[in-house]
Amino acid sequence: TLLKGRPERDCMNFLRYNAATLGNHEFDDGPKVLADTFLDGLVPPMLAANVDASADPALKDRLKPWTILTVGGRKIGLVGIANEDTAALSNPGPDIVFHKAEEPLRQAVKELASRGADIVIAITHVGLERDKELAAAVDGIDVIVGGHSHSLLSNTDPNAAGPYPVVVRSPSGAPVLIVQAEAWGKYLGELGVDFDAKGVAKAWAGAPLLMDASRPKNKALLEMVRSWQGEMNPYLDQPRGKASADLSAECRFGECALGDALADAVRLSAKAQGVRAAFVNGGAIRSGLRAGDVSLGDLLTVYPFADNVATFELSGKDLLAVLEHGVSMASDPGGSGTGRFLQVSGIRYSFDPRKPEGRRIITADIMGTDGGFAPVDPEKTYPLATTGYLLKGGDGYAVLKERAKRVYAFGMPVSDVFNDFFATHSPVSGRLEGRIVRLGDALPK
Fold first, then answer.
1. Per residue in 59-78, pLDDT tens?
2. What is the spatial distance between Cα 436 and Cα 254, in angstroms, rounded to a whole number?
3. What is the arithmetic mean of pLDDT over 375-383?
4. Fewest 10 Å CB contacts: which of 33, 105, 179, 196?
5. Strand 175-179 relative to strand 143-145: parallel, antiparallel, unpaired?
């Protein structure tokens, strides 16, 4: 983002957070930016029991595994668990280690108990399904406040991912209450719990509260928001082009017009290097566009990441493996890995999500030097382009990290080439070109 986490930090301070943990996107601009902007001046402790940052000069000594609050005379332990897959999902650099959560949680519970905290709340960013696994595997956790999967838990919404709270039994049989309130501050989660003398939950009730216009506004916070908008508006209001139709951000299960445009932008920016095809992960497309004028700010909401175009060569065999990985979770709407689904330029492929993983790609064609398409030849080598994030193995693309040759990962910023594409190819339409054909079933809901 343009302000690099400063608004989030100031809001957390203003709202008097007790503690927080790190999500994968906190590392998108690297650990130094995280430390110098978001963490610098942050009042609540940043908890991450499963992160070893001792070898990173920026984050060394900036994270704690746990903290203790005293509420009503009782000690309550708070422990943080960062996303275990951050090294694959973001840009934390080589010096930070993200451990699986089970043992760090057990150690934190032991240390908190030795200090008299018999109620333990885990603040996690691992997703709802992983939260359930941890609740069932580790004794001593009473409540898990989760994130990452953007799950709405509710006792009234028919589309909720589960009740509020989800209740899982620990190995000793004690209830563990799991809550999550979707994302983006749309809901405020409220949970009341009665604990017995030993710190075991005996009764509970709660709900996610929708933060709509009926809620009273805080004038001081509104002034903070206006000041940030004032800093950004002259830059964000610059016109970049037009969209001839609404362009959806639903890009994780099939072809989307914004994905076509972003992949085209990446490919065209590397055309002089002989690149004939490109791909981007659908999860990088974070927002849609309304029909009409498109500003720089609009495009930055679509692609808000600091990354560069990367060029490389890859064998046809490995390119097919890349495409297979892209559709490996295309039948799992609840999986966070659906962000790996590839949007393409200069490539056409079809897949069948009903088939086993690794055998879902049915056809795959690539554009040649004459502009025509031919099947991908496993024995040939192709010049390609993507984002630095994917080339470094992001979203689980180990084949790119391990097999790409003649790599140059310092091309133009992706956001710049995307902006340039809109400036030179407007109006951008919502028409799909049949680059990706999904066989056999409807799109997941």
1. 999 999 999 999 999 999 99
2. 6
3. 98
4. 196
5. parallel
Which of 232, 256, 444 has its CA nearest to residue 354? 444
Dig out the tokens for 409 from the structure. 């990962």
- The CA-atom distances, in angstroms, between 247 and each of 265, 292, 367 are 16, 10, 25
Q: Is the pLDDT of residue 445 over 60?
A: no
- Classified as helix, coil or strand, 393 is coil
CB atoms within 10 A of CB 378: 12
Q: What is the DSSP letter of 153?
A: B
Check whether the bond before 427 is cis (ω within 30° of 0): yes
> What are the backbone angles phi and psi of residue 15, rounded to the nearest 5°?
-85, 0
Q: Which domains does the chain have, with CATH numbers?
A: 6-210 (3.60.21.10), 239-438 (3.90.780.10)
Q: What integer pLDDT is reported at residue 338 of this predicted model?
A: 84
At 421, the amino acid letter reads F
Looking up tokens 């799992």, which residue turns up? 332
Pairing of strands 143-145, 239-243: unpaired
6-14 helix and 219-236 helix, angle to the nearest 10 degrees: 180
d(CA 83, CA 168): 20
**275 CB neighbour count, 10 Å cutoff:** 24
Cβ atoms within 10 Å, residue 102: 14
Separation of alpha carbons 292 and 190, rounded Å = 39
Distances (CA, A) of 28 to 187, 284, 306, 389: 25, 11, 7, 9
- 194, β-bridge pairs: 203
Task: Tell me the two tokens of residue 341.
Answer: 């689904």
Average pLDDT over residues 195-221: 96
DSSP 268-281: HHTGGGT--EEEEE
Residue 37: both structure tokens together:
């902007």
| Phi, psi (rounded to 5 degrees) for 267 | -65, -50
Q: How far apart are CA 420 and CA 361, in angstroms?
A: 32
CA distances from 411 to 31, 188, 420 (A): 21, 41, 14
3-state secondary structure of 134: helix
Cβ neighbours of 153 (radius 10 Å): 24
- Torsion, CA 336, CA 337, CA 343, CA 347, rounded to 10: -170
Sheet of 66-71: strands edge to edge?
66-71, 74-81, 119-124, 143-145, 175-179, 166-169
Terminal CA-CA length for the chain:
30
Would you tell me the crossing angle of helices 414-425 and 257-269 to the nearest 10 degrees?
110
Q: Nearest CA to 141 among 161, 120, 172?
A: 120
Report residue 330's pLDDT band, with 50, 70 and 90 as the boundaries.
confident
